[in-house]
Amino acid sequence: MKQYSAVWEAVIGLEIHAELNTKSKLFSVAPNRFGDEPNTNITEVCTGQPGALPVLNKEAVLKAVQFGCAINANISRFSTFDRKSYFYPDSPRNFQITQYDEPIIRGGTVIAEVDGKEMGFAVNRVHLEDDAGMLKHFPTFAGVDYNRAGVPLIEIVSEPCIHSGKEASAYALAVKAILQYIDASDCNMEEGSLRVDVNVSVRPKGTNELRSKIEIKNMNSFSFMEMAIEAEIKRQIHEYERNPDLLPHLIIQQATFRWDVEKKETVMMRSKEMAADYRYFPEPDLVPIVLSENYIEEIAKSLPELPLQRERRYVKEFGLTPHNAFLLVSDKKIADYFEEALLLYNQPRLLCTWITVEFAGRLKETGKNIIDYGISSVHLANLVKMIDRGVITGRIAKTVADDMMLHPDKNPELIVAENPDYSPVHDEGEIETLVDQVLAANPQSIADFKAGRDKAFAFLVGQVMKLSRGKASPGVVNDLLKRKILG
Amino acid sequence: MSEIYNLSAIEIRDRFLKGSISAVSIVETFLKRIEKYDSKIGAFLKVFPERALSQAKKLDERLKGGEKLGKLAGIPIAFKDNIHVKGEISTCASKFLTNYKAPFDATVTELIEAEDAIIIGKTNMDEFAMGSSTENSALQKTCNPWDLSCTPGGSSGGSAAAVAARLCPLALGSDTGGSVRLPASFCGIVGFKPTYGRVSRFGLVAYGSSLDQIGPLATTTADAALLMEVIGKHCPRDSTSFDEPQEAYLDKINNRPEGLTIGVPWQFLEELAPEPKQIFNQALETLRTLGAKIVDVDLHILKHSIAVYYILATAEASTNLARFDGIRYGVRSSKAKTLDEVYRYSKEEGFGPEVKRRILLGTYVLSAGYKDAYYKKAQKVRSLMIKSYEKTFTQCDLVATPVSPFTAFEIGAIKDPLQMYLEDIYTIGINLAGLPAISVPEGFAKDGKPLGLQLIGPQKGDALVLAAAHLYEKQSKYNLAIPTFVK
């Protein structure tokens, strides 16, 4: 947003809630599973029965610590839980168990790519807490599904170190990638396993003041988040600029907004006066989490490869550009898919281009990625193999890819075999006729090439390919052209 | 002493195991006594004749079959109505829970039934264990078997009255600030509060989670020790339960403790009235003749106990009771039309005045702007009390005080809640420090009502407390007295 960057600076902090993919819930043995019949994955703890007590799930602690190690944070040797009181039917005890005073993780840095450049974002804290149930509305009544109640969450709170919507989504994307790499969360925004709240304020550029912030909730995709942030920044700047004589805290007051997808604007949910007093105090039913040096060291040592490490490996081993490597690694499943294809046909750069450019472009409108769309790594590898070995030309390959989009489960080798148009013409006689036509029509290019301009040669090749409607074997075209021009 | 009801729980068990009396006739004897006397006393909220008799029949058959039976075989036992017995209603003596069938067994219930005790019924209490006289029961009045015009003390008044009137030989209570010991003292029986964490709280409806402990009420220290052997077990479903092996308390109490030093905090007992003081002195004299050395100790910090307790216990209670909202269980107000009204009217109609008072107090002390002055300060004083006790126990093995400043008072006599809170002045600090303590009969006032001696031990010193009480009881024998009304 170049319009505001000269005078105003946005100050943004993110609170990312990620559901941990543990086997059971944070404080009960009930299964942690999405999509089951309502109120089937529950125990007396999940519905807040009197007499029920929480027991901490060690797997959730492990995953939180893994995340802490992955962002190079301080892991607390001692952390505690607190009760956060509020009344709502989805909260079975009418208090949430969270970590307020002593979170399990403090500090840390998330490295993300913004406009092709690496940027570090500071994390303030990460804490464990339990999720609420879900309200379901029916024509004559509302019901509560407690299957989600008690699912472990980590809340990742950034420092207010983000300055644009673009930076915010780059940061969130990097957090998501880390969570996927350490297998801590499914990070499925549609199913709600990754949720982001944003705090936005603006200030005159060059100052360090922190003005009243607006919290924006309920954004279920990173692109909505980016739009919401930019809209909110503009709104705040507009408010400050049209009230130059008022004190800032009278213009923007702390409040909670939500993003209205239809109107494409942020809408107020509640003002500060309506903000709840959560009455935090230490949860007496749980003992502190005490972690040994040994425990933390073991986890740090056995961390799997992280997205940044993988990106650097791709650059070093495969000669990919950092940006291309980043595109691959920012979704672990895609990077894994790339490596599967690589085992089948070792041509990393071509594979990378076909995943991140060709198919990504074709898939954009479907909202799916190549894996979900059903194009197997075998088929992708076969396609690249055919290109690399000259079985098909790059141009034909694009048409074959279009066909693969129509029949995602069809082997491209079969697609090519079934369609005679896709077999390149190797017959010299046939191609020679075309070469002669092109040479006759472009004497200037011949002269240019002879004068040492390689571009002129490429132009001539292109013309021949065009006449052949992409079917001429580029090797044969090259040979013939060179022979005829240079004698 | 040949009548069954006059026997201790251990004697009843032994007769049953020897075959001199059947479990069915034991149960029938006590059921008849309940029928005869409880209309006047009001100890039981619910009696389980069918459940108890069918269990007794099974025990008789198993004994006949030569099976080895458990430690509590054939002993009828009553539960305070805040301890879950699966399938039975747990009212907590509150209108709100009159329809609440416990969906699971408390850990103590499982342990006790595994040792072949017979649960005979559920007893009256102050609503949600909030009170010192059982007058706060929303369901019925309980009278003191020694004087029917008086309260039995509270909050476990029903359990204490039932045991004192020999309506059952053994009962469970819960003690948050003296709720086992005070009624034991008022009813002339033994009441034991274990070290915090010794007995699982799973299945006990919470009042003040960091203070609550389930404890036995019995006519002898040996019976209390026997029940402690069974329920004093590590429980993985209660995170505050400490992981130590069960102790053989019965063996341990028979090892006479030699060379005991008993501390008395005389400064703290300054205002004790002449009659209870004289009876307490007599008890100390008995202890001296048994070889104990009596020393003066400084625990003046305990004068803050009531203030600290009514901040911390109510803070915890205000959140523990938040779940009683009429959404998932309990009695939902029939006049509620909206969600807010469900909350408002269900609580308004479901809770009694003392419960409301404590919820309001607890909410207040945790509120923004007051938390530091009340809750946090009280936590600090609590830590000082724990340290003060620790220091005291470097100077003596046990601390002795009266259980209460007076004998049982008349029903309706204390109208000022603050006056009522003072009933617990000598017992409440022990819960704040998490220590084990016992109330053992120490004699009678001129009006014929009993008084209890309190012996307090260091953390995990449960066995020593029981052993010293046993030693004193064998000498003083006040526990053998039975109210004339039920003879």
What series of H and E elements makes up the topology of chain B? Answer: HHEHEHEHEHEEHHEHEHHHHEHHEEH
**pLDDT < 50 runs, ≥5 residues of chain B:** none
Give me the number of helical elements of chain B: 16
* Basic shape of chain A: elongated
Q: According to CATH, what is the class of chain B?
A: Alpha Beta
CATH fold node name of chain B? Amidase signature (AS) enzymes
Could you name the key traits of this structure?
heterodimer; A: 487 residues; alpha+beta; Arc Repressor Mutant, subunit A; 3 domains; 10-stranded mixed sheet; 3-stranded antiparallel sheet; B: 487 residues; alpha/beta; Amidase signature (AS) enzymes; 11-stranded mixed sheet; 16 helices; 12% strand
Your description of this structure?
The complex is a heterodimer of chains A (487) and B (487). With 487 residues, chain A is of the alpha+beta class. Chain A has three domains: 2-297, no CATH class; 307-422, no CATH class; 428-486, Arc Repressor Mutant, subunit A. In chain A, 41% of the residues lie in helices and 20% in strands. Chain A is built from 18 helices and 17 strands. Chain A has helices at residues 2-5, 58-70, 165-181, 222-242, 248-251, 293-301, 307-318, 322-329, 332-344, 348-363, 370-373, 377-388, 394-406, 412-418, 428-441, 443-450, 454-467, 474-486; strands at residues 8-19, 74-75, 78-79, 82-85, 95-98, 105-106, 109-114, 117-130, 134-137, 142-145, 152-158, 194-204, 214-219, 255-260, 265-271, 281-282, 289-290. In chain A, strands 1, 2, 6, 7, 8, 11, 12, 13, 14 and 15 form a ten-stranded mixed β-sheet that branches. A three-stranded antiparallel β-sheet of chain A has the order 5-4-16, with no helix packed on it. In chain A, strands 3-17 form a two-stranded antiparallel ribbon. In chain A, a hairpin with a 2-residue loop joins strand 7 and strand 8. Chain B is an alpha/beta fold and 487 residues long. Chain B is 39% helix and 12% strand. Chain B has 16 helices and eleven strands. Chain B has helices at residues 9-18, 23-41, 49-64, 107-114, 157-164, 181-187, 221-231, 249-254, 274-289, 305-320, 339-350, 353-366, 372-392, 417-421, 428-433, 462-476; strands spanning 44-47, 76-80, 118-123, 170-175, 190-193, 213-218, 261-264, 293-296, 398-402, 437-444, 450-456. In chain B, strands 1-3-2-4-6-5-10-11-9-7-8 form an eleven-stranded mixed β-sheet. In chain B, helix 9 links the parallel strand 7 and strand 8. Chain B starts with 8 loop residues before the first helix and ends in an 11-residue tail after the last helix.
